[in-house]
Design brief:
eleven-stranded mixed beta sheet; 13 helices; two-stranded antiparallel ribbon; alpha/beta; globular
């Protein structure tokens, strides 16, 4: 495939599934706000949550800023016993799941065998393990929490959600780097569409703010060093961007078979129309220069959604704020969408909430789901001087009011993992 070739969008397969999948609940836990109303208020407020790190002393590192979830009290979501047994990773996941279930008014006791959990996390419970290792080195094995073996693995959060809510359907955890959250939602979409579940709690969870974990990313010079102006450190598509800003957070969405949702009178945010995933097979940290495989992921999602590029009303970009990735993502949009790339409004919201690794795509998908109701497109925070090589319609300023019917969400991760979702407006009528 040549560099000037766009992705083909042929006719959909005649064997496409007939079950439709909708989003009926969102449960975000983020640095700019938690719960449906809190997250949207944070997006509309436009104030970056990036600050100097308070969870530990960042002085030894070149990057000293992050986006933390302030004021989180696990007792607001679970009892004392559960708080003591769960680390921050599992606490975040359970809190987000409970927020989503409440928002969807979902009775998980109704058909629990057909309710599943699909969660993504790049690092799982590694931050808790890091602290336990320090305790071990200092005071020996007796000082280590007996819960360590039960908290460090990537599926710990989803398992604790299942135990708390009595969910006995499929429980799938993935660790596909920064694309984990979008992949979890995409795979959940396929599970519901294919009849393997009627409802899935899907999203991402990440709590990476611990010294060694944070320092490992600083070591490879992936993060911003704009320590003197933390709130401006994350600058997607801006000429002066110098790296991503690490964050913590979680978001769980309720994906539900559409007729089931209509029967119970559920509020429908959006319909999941298509999903695509590919791998660059190129490099662990650098994207494939041609953007071919990332563009193919977008093409697969559009084909499954039966949406042509010119029918997109908005693109929520990965927009990590790294020099190479933002430039390559611009190329990817041009390659995947052709002329429609220049005519479609695009923004990235990491300037507000930072980059919560495997949870970021889920947080951003929650934002996308709410855009249909509010009819407003968020700007790209801190996009003051657009990079000449990022020359598409990246939204600046105060955002745009616009009716939205179809949205593309992209997510890319270390290892060359690419994922894309297409969401659509749902009219809430049967048939």
């Amino acid at each position: 495939m040549g560099d000037d070739t766009t992705i083909s969008h042929g006719p959909p397969s005649a064997t496409a599934e007939t079950r439709r999948v909708v989003i009926t609940g969102v449960g975000p836990l983020t640095p700019i706000g938690s719960g449906r109303a809190g997250l949207w208020q944070g997006v509309r407020g436009g104030q970056s949550a990036v600050r100097r790190i308070t969870r530990f002393d960042p002085a030894p590192f070149s990057s000293q800023v992050a986006a933390e979830v302030q004021g989180f009290d696990p007792h607001d979501y679970m009892d004392n016993r559960r708080c003591r047994r769960l680390d921050r990773f599992s606490q975040f996941g359970l809190a987000a799941a409970l927020l989503a279930v409440e928002d969807a008014r979902l009775d998980v006791a109704d058909d629990p065998e057909m309710i599943g959990i699909y969660l993504g996390s790049a690092l799982g419970g590694i931050a808790f393990a890091e602290q336990q290792h320090l305790d071990y080195v200092k005071d020996g094995l007796r000082s280590v929490s007996p819960m360590l073996a039960l908290t460090v693995f990537g599926g710990a959060s989803s398992c604790n959600i299942a135990i708390e809510l009595g969910i006995t359907g499929p429980n799938i955890a993935n660790a596909n780097s920064c694309a984990s959250g979008v992949i979890a939602i995409g795979e959940a979409f396929r599970a519901v569409r294919g009849g393997h579940a009627n409802v899935v709690l899907a999203g991402g969870v990440e709590t990476p703010l611990a010294p060694l974990t944070f320092g490992s990313f600083a070591l490879i010079k992936a993060m911003s060093t704009a320590n003197d102006a933390p709130e401006r450190a994350s600058r997607p598509f801006d000429r002066r961007r110098d790296g991503f800003v690490m964050a913590e957070g979680a978001a769980v969405l309720i994906l539900e078979e559409r007729e089931r949702a209509l029967r119970r009178g559920a509020r429908i945010y959006a319909e999941v129309l298509g999903y695509g995933a590919t791998t660059d097979a190129h490099h662990m940290t650098a994207p494939l220069p041609s953007g071919e495989q990332a563009a193919r992921a977008i093409g697969l999602a559009l084909d499954e959604a039966r949406v042509a590029p010119h029918q997109l009303d908005y693109i929520n970009a990965h927009g990590s704020s790294t020099p190479l990735n933002d430039r390559t993502e611009t190329l990817v949009f041009k390659r995947a969408l052709g002329e429609a790339a220049g005519a479609t409004p695009i923004s990235g919201t990491k300037g507000l909430h930072g980059h919560a690794l495997g949870a970021t795509g889920a947080i951003e998908t929650a934002i996308c789901a709410m855009i249909f109701e509010h009819g407003w497109l968020p700007p790209t925070t801190n996009l003051d001087e657009p990079d000449p090589e990022c020359d598409l319609d990246y939204i600046r300023g105060k955002g745009r009011s616009r009716r939205v019917d179809r949205v593309l969400k992209t997510s890319f991760g270390f290892g060359g993992i690419n994922a894309a979702l297409v969401l659509g407006r749902d009219d809430g009528r049967s048939g």
